[in-house]
Amino acid sequence: MSFAAYKMMHCPTGIDNCASGFLTHSRADYVPRVPPLPADDLDPDSDWPNPATRRDLGPIPNLILTSANVLEVYAVRVHEESAKGPPAAAESSRGGVFDGVTGASLELVCHYRLHGNVEAMAVLSIGAGDGSRRRDSIILTFKDAKISVLEYDDSIHGLRTSSLHCFEGPEWLHLKRGREQFASGPLVKVDPQGRCGGVLVYDLQMIILKATQAGSGLVGDDDTLGSGGAVAARIESSYMINLRDLDMRHVKDFTFVHGYIEPVMVILHECELTWAGRLSWKHHTCMISALSISTTLKQHPLIWSAVNLPHDAYKLLAVPSPIGGVLVIGANTIHYHSQSASCALALNSYAVSLDSSQEMPRSTFNVELDAANATWLSNDVALLSTKTGELLLLVLVYDGRVVQRLDLSKSKASVLSSGITTIGSSLFFLASRLGDSMLVQFSCGSGVSMSSSNNLKEEVGDIEVDAPSSKRLRRSPSDALQDLVSGEELSLYGSAPNRTESAQKTFSFAVRDSLINVGPLKDFSYGLRINADANATGIAKQSNYELVCCSGHGKNGSICVLRQSIRPEVITEVELPGCKGIWTVYHKSSRSHSADSSKMANDDDEYHAYLIISLEARTMVLETADLLSEVTESVEYYIRGKTLAAGNLFGRRRVIQVFEHGARILDGSFMTHEKFFGSSNSESNSGSENVMAVSVSIADPYALIRMSDGSIRLLIGDPSTCTISVTTPASLESSKGSVSSCTLYHDKGPEPWLRKTSTDAWLSTGVGEAIDGADGAAQDHGDIYCVMCYENGSLEIFDVPNFSCVFSVENFMSGKSHLIDALMKEVPKDFEKVDRGSNGISGQGRMENVPDMKVVELAMHRWSGQHSRPFLFGILSDGTILCYHAYLYESLDGNSKLEDSVSAGGPAGLNSTNVSRLRNLRFVRVPMDAYAREETSNVSPCQQITVFKNIGGYQGFFLSGSRPAWVMMLRERLRVHPQLCDGSIVAFTVLHNVNCNHGLIYVTSQGVLKICQLPSGSNYDCYWPVQKIPLKATPHQVTYFAEKNLYPLIVSVPVPKPLNQVVSLVEQDSNHQSESQNLNPDEQNRFYSVDEFEVRIMEPDKSGGPWQTKATIPMQTSENALTVRMVTLLNTSSKENETLLAVGTAYVQGEDVAARGRILLFSLGKNTDNSQTLVSEVYSKELKGAISALASLQGHLLIASGPKIILHKWTGTELNGIAFFDAPPLHVVSLNIVKNFILIGDIHKSIYFLSWKEQGAQLSLLAKDFGNLDCFATEFLIDGSTLSLMVSDDQKNIQIFYYAPKMSESWKGQKLLSRAEFHVGAHVTKFLRLQMLSTSDRSGSGSDKTNRFALLFGTLDGSIGCIAPLDELTFRRLQSLQRKLVDAVPHLAGLNPRAFRQFRSNGKAHRPGPDSIVDCELLCHYEMLPLEEQLEIAHQVGTTRSQILSNLSDLALGTSFL
User: In the chain, N or C: fewer CB atoms in 10 Å?
Assistant: First the structure.
């Protein structure tokens, strides 16, 4: 293996930074949308109390999240309670009704994978009050000193870089002052009024970013018009302040404060460093300095400062107007300082005042605030989230602008947070790396009860009145841990409002939404799923497995079960060879016309009546009552040939069945009407027999049929008589060539979405309603459009039934990043070069000849949801799937080509024949990442996309074919989950009846029909389907016992102990009994939490519910379990192999006691009924040194204990050492074994490569890496007969080494040589070696090495990726493509992918290794380029597009594990 590919398979989910800002809309946009109520509800009586609470929501900003290198922008959708909505529906939403709000949810606006990890983020806002039209921008910082400013651009529905600032490279080298390592990356903060921002780089250089003032600078007038009149905040220039010149040495934090005319920056810095051992002499070492920043004069005078702050102060929080000033948060104290006043609050008994004469006011309970996060709920209440996950409320009691005292009170317990931000006036978001992040609604009541929240305005004035002391919550510190048990936790399930009275302010909370997180992945294990199929082979066998991961920490600790593919739960299956398609239809005999028009609410719950199965030459009909029974003979369906489609018309009162020569309308089982398709009028009748229907799309009351000669028929249903008539749209008679595919799109709902995009939106809604009213049909039928693609690749949208063109795009199949109506004059700058290129290419003979590609299938659908927008999908004949999301963009200049078209078509008056064009409609291309490409087949294509509205509560579409996949629409984003377990799938449909609730039916290509349901335990709103099993404890390591399907895992639970017990534990071995006596009585009662370890043996639940703990093995006090492994040992007395559970532990007793550890062996019992005998200890022994890694080596047990590695043999009763190796490893973090080779990873000393020889019974060192490396994980990488050694380190790199004793530079084989190195950008904690799937059955190239393994890895960010070996030819091709793509693809935030993937050595000397890993994160952009650019780049690389796509597809297939 000389070459490899790096591929990210599951993006990071642990959120590092969160912020809120008005990106996609401005504050002023809020006003018109206040009542989402229907207009007639605003009568004064019913609705009077509500407006007071409603108005409180105000404009709601976007939520911006970053997790490692992923940047996401969300819109927060608040679902308001409507006055006449049924109360039952409101209760079902999470958290109940609250301030007139029934719920809130997050909806994705855009998602980017950047080429760099975001270090810090801030939102630059123009603080001009709520009426401001300006929008906010995002400032991101990256290591070492890169700053990017992004703004949202409506015209491309995405982010655009507005400025880049870089302070790296040779000309800025002097900023580092000779240092190589810096404690943290660049830190960014922004002036609350948006006048400037500050970035601290290299610990001591402050960069001031000056913002453009409104109406000046770079923003010209034309620009204002171009982006819809909304201008985002931008940066004009930057300059630097060297903080050393101001005599600041150690800057800890800084912020901008409110309420000054010029921006004022407050810096927290430490004058002289101190440490725990010197605290009694040197303790109050920090100070704050306030600088007034004049960006025009570039001056920064000191205006005030405060000294003698405690050494553990670490965070500043600017207090909002009208109070102003700054809070300094330390581990044991909170201080408030402003220019005029100051006060402090002690949080626990460790807080000391500067001189012990004056006493600091104390809070009523003890808490430690190190590593806390904070945000403001109102201008005088801050919400703090502590390191134990408690939420605290800090109230500033003030008079005018003078803060008199600080008041701290407990609120709920919640997730351990990494950041917290307020969104608008009544929501906040808790971001977390260790658990699921939450969106929480809060409301500030006043003492009495929830119902009085509309008296809020009057009672706010009473804040100064001190709450009676009896009402204050007093809690002992042990209560903090009771929170975990008492069910008062702010979790996703319970949300009873818990009130905290603090200065008579009551806050109640309700969790509204949550984002799932699977990180940090500390360890994982690979086991069989419960519903595994033992007979599966090839790629289908992969979906037998699942990944069981240790994730989370403390009370957020859990087991995450991850599966890359969905495996439906089969209810029943039947052999059914030769099936071509299946459909289910509704029919209710008693359905009357009147019942239909009221559109009953239980529409979704109606059962299907018939299942129609189309075979090669006949059709079967089954009844879907309690049993599926065939009724083919007794119904009047067309059964003598194959059916093309079936569906319901006229509000489910009739069934339409379309076959090759005609269509039937049926009422239940009786035919009421039949029509045959003739040839179109213009042709002579002689050829009519050969023209057959090829594909059908049904949208009540129309059906669109594409004939085999490329012409179109439209069946129009008449709801009053329930009959249909066939027409050929007149506008298509002189058509632009034959149609390659077409579909109908039904824009449902009370307010159809596409209408908003037409030119005169207000006019057309009026028109639409007038037409509908005349029709007598129900109002919410919405509009129907026809989407059509021609052989030449252009796409048009028509309105039905008039067939006037409302939207057209040239060359749809080239897959441009944005689609814009062809009649719009102005083409955005990004698209010009593409179009110019496409004209030139067709004339060049040198290009690769693309086999006549065409669009073989189209689908357009808008799923339910108040703000959902339609998606458009196209499948090309080479298997590419184009996926577009519609959006609305109103460009302000009205000079498009529209006028000409209108004059041609007659006056655009109220006559319904001329509907105005959808000129504000645009589409943005969305990547379909996880989708492995379809193999192209020459068979006539069957329909691949089946839209479903409710399968197990999810909506989306199913993609059948040789690579079936589920695509689910969640939060306005598509989640692609492949389904590998049955190979190719030919037909799919939904089924909802008594025995199969919201289930599905599909037919495999082997001819098996399966009726299934979606597995219920999994959550599909993640990159992979995930099931989380909460443990309420920290999991550390997991292993898998295949025979009994059990997972032993190490778990630690924090237990509070009195301090004297903890001290005596440490001292029981040394003879210092005296010290524990001189703890004063106050300290002896103080509690201190100690981790207690145990090994739990968990069994997966058969039905997918929570897992059962079968047995637990407790450790002794102060004993930590470090490793758990299933090992196979050869019992030397009985000569049989035994599979045992081995646990290695260490005693943690402080630095005065020599390290010891235990090795424990357990047998997992035969008896499963009685759990007592499940686990029995067979051996335990205490050894010197911590036992940190174990492995079985050819029947022997290899133990790493401290600095020794010892090999033992097992006699059945004891372990005897037979060989040892004294390398200088300090602490072994991982052991891997292949045959008789051993790979050891050490915490500081990099890797060692050993071999074991049976005959001399010796462990000998073959080679080692001479560099220093702090290893995290190691593993062998096997490619055919080549063995390489993989290691990941603390700088987020991976390296591949190899052993080559014949090479001269290996110093006669002592030294391991570097084969490749790569920067992953995340801490890799575990590698798992899995055999790659052979792709030789389809490509005859030399890639069919059977013995080829890839490494799957998990990281602390919650991402999962893999490293897969490549053969040299493929590698060279992809590497040259990668070099081209660095320039060909625009990278968001101006980041360079090559720089990101450089090995980071953090200042240590490092000789760069070969660049032998290609980055699939960059290569995946190739498929998103327009077709012409793909061909051009492939030509420049010297290969063909199909060759590149086939290489990428082989790689995706070979690594589709799980």
Answer: C
- pTM for the whole structure: 0.88
| Tokens 């299938």 belong to residue | 857
Q: Tell me the HSE value of 1057 on the side-chain side, using a 13 A CA sphere.
A: 16
Partners of residue 241 on adjacent β-strands = 206
Instruction: Please report the DSSP string for 248-306 in residue order.
Output: --EEEEEEEESS-SS-EEEEEEESS---GGGTTTS---EEEEEEE-BTTTTB--EEEEE
**Dihedral angle sign, alpha carbons of residues 627, 630, 633, 637:** positive
Can you say whether the dihedral through the CA atoms of 46, 49, 52, 57 is positive or negative? negative
Q: Residue 279, Cβ neighbours under 10 Å: how many? A: 15
Distance from C-alpha of 730 to C-alpha of 733, rounded to nearest angstrom: 5
> What does DSSP assign to residue 652?
T
- Do residues 1160 and 1145 touch, judged by C-beta distance below 8 A? yes
Q: Which residues, 6 or more positions from 876, have their beta carbon under 8 angstroms from its beta carbon?
A: 813, 853, 854, 855, 856, 882
Tokens of 1377: 């493509």
Q: Rounded to an integer, what is the distance from CA 900 to the centroid of its chain? A: 46
Burial annotation 1331-1348 (CB, 10 A radius, 16+ → b, else e): ebbbbeeeeeeebebeeb
* Least confident range of 384-393, 584-593, 1242-1251: 584-593
Counts of helices then strands in the chain (DSSP H, E):
18, 86
Query: How many angstroms separate the CA atoms of 801 and 716, rounded?
Result: 8
Q: Alpha-carbon distance 611 to 657, whole Å?
A: 12
Distance CA 1073, CA 1060 (A): 11
Question: End-to-end CA distance of the chain, in Å?
Answer: 24
| CA separation, residue 71 to residues 55, 117, 140, 583 (Å) | 31, 10, 10, 41
Burial class of residue 900, CB neighbours in 10 A (0-12, 13-18, 19+): exposed
Prior bond of 322 cis (ω within 30°):
yes
| Separation CA 966–CA 1021 (nearest Å) | 12
Least confident of 8-22, 454-468, 754-768, 1160-1174: 454-468
| DSSP run (H or E) holding 1128 | strand 1119-1131
What is the pLDDT, as a whole number, of residue 933?
67
pLDDT in tens, 1139-1195: 999 999 999 888 888 889 999 999 987 655 555 558 899 999 999 999 999 999 999
Judged by DSSP in three states, 435 sits in coil
| Confidence label for 275 from pLDDT (cuts 50, 70 and 90) | confident
DSSP bridge pairs for 337: 326, 342
The CA-based angle 591-597-603, given to 5 degrees, is 65
Helix (H) / strand (E) element for 1192: namely strand 1187-1193
Q: What is the token pair recorded at 694?
A: 């090829």
Least confident of 40-54, 371-385, 558-572, 1263-1277: 40-54
- Summarised one tens digit per residue, pLDDT across range 1192-1213 is 999 999 999 988 999 999 999 9
Q: Residue 28 has what pLDDT?
A: 78
Structure token pair of residue 1056: 């509070």
| DSSP string for residues in 501-534 | -BTTBEEEEEEEEEE-------EEEEEE-TT--T
Helix axes 1427-1437, 1441-1454, angle to 10 degrees: 90
Q: How many CA atoms lie within 13 A of 280 on its CB side?
A: 1
| HSE toward the beta carbon, residue 228, CA cutoff 13 A | 19
Both structure tokens of 832: 């010009």
Buried b (16+ CB within 10 A) or exposed e, 491-502: beeebebbbbeb
> To which residue do tokens 């192209």 refer?
936
**Residue 909: what pLDDT?**
34
Residue 645 identity (one-letter amino acid): A
Looking only at the bridges linking them, the beta strands covering 1413-1415 and 1360-1366 are: unpaired
* 782 and 752 Cβ atoms separated by less than 8 Å: yes
Task: Please say if the pLDDT value at position 1075 is more than 60.
Answer: no
